[in-house]
Specification:
The chain has 184 residues and is mainly alpha-helical. Helix content is 54%, strand content 0%. The chain is built from ten helices and no strands. The protein has helices at residues 8-27, 32-39, 43-50, 58-68, 95-110, 112-121, 126-133, 141-151, 155-158, 171-174. Helix 1 (8-27) crosses helix 8 and helix 5 packs across helix 6. The protein is globular, with a radius of gyration of 16 Å. The N and C termini lie far apart (47 Å).
C-alpha cells in the first residue's frame, strides 16, 4: 500500500517507524541501496517507508530489523536508542511470530468473542485471524497498528517476543502471567 493513510493513528505509527528505520540505518552508515540489498527490498520502497508512506508486512519489518541489528519492536520506541550497543541481544522470534503468539495468547485469556468483535472493527476476518495467529500470514504494519489502537496496546509491545518486554504498562495486558504481585 502506498500513499497517505486515512487513519491518522496508522499514519503516525508508520511515520514513527520510518524515522526510526532511517536513524538506525544512518547510525550504521548504510545507504538505502545497501539496506535494500541486505533485506531483498526495493530501494524505492525503503525510501517511502522512511518517509512514512509505505506499509510493510511484519516479516519484512523483521528482515529490516535484523539488517539494522535491532529488535523490531524498538523501531516503534520513543525515543529511539542512539547508541550502537544499546541492544544486548536480538530476540529469537521475528515480529510476525511474536505478534502471532501475543495475539493468540490474548484471545485465549480474554475470550474469543470480545476479541473477535475488536478484530471485526479492524477489518480482520476470522480466516485472516487464523492465518495470522498460526504463522501462515504476515500482517501489514497498518493492520497491526489498527488492532493495537482498538486494543489500546502500543505496537512495539504487541510485536515484542514473550520474555523480551523492555517496557512496562500495557505489557501486562499482553502477558497477564507476568503481572507483578504487590508482595514481590
Amino acid at each position: 500500500m502506498q500513499g497517505k493513510f486515512e487513519d491518522p493513528g496508522i499514519a503516525a505509527d508508520l511515520a514513527h517507524l520510518g524515522r526510526n528505520v532511517r536513524k538506525a540505518r544512518e547510525r550504521l552508515g548504510l545507504s538505502v541501496g545497501r539496506l535494500a540489498a541486505l533485506t531483498h527490498a526495493k530501494p524505492s520502497r525503503l525510501r517511502l517507508l522512511e518517509e512514512g508512506q509505505q506499509d510493510i508486512t511484519l516479516r519484512t519489518l523483521g528482515r529490516i530489523a535484523a539488517a539494522l541489528h535491532v529488535p523490531a519492536h524498538t523501531l516503534f520506541s520513543e525515543p529511539f536508542p542512539s547508541e550502537k550497543n544499546a541492544f544486548q541481544r536480538l530476540p529469537v522470534l521475528g515480529p510476525d511470530e511474536a505478534f502471532a503468539q501475543n495475539l493468540r495468547h490474548q484471545l485465549e485469556v480474554s475470550g474469543y468473542g470480545i476479541q473477535a468483535t475488536i478484530l471485526a472493527r479492524c477489518g480482520v476476518s476470522p480466516s485472516q485471524l487464523y492465518r495470522i495467529t498460526h504463522g501462515a500470514s504476515s500482517p501489514l504494519v497498518s493492520t497491526v497498528s489498527r488492532i493495537c489502537r482498538e486494543a489500546r496496546v502500543p505496537v512495539g509491545e504487541a510485536i515484542t517476543p514473550p520474555g523480551n518486554l523492555l517496557t512496562e504498562g500495557h505489557a501486562d495486558d499482553l502477558h497477564p502471567e507476568r503481572r507483578r504481585t504487590e508482595d514481590s
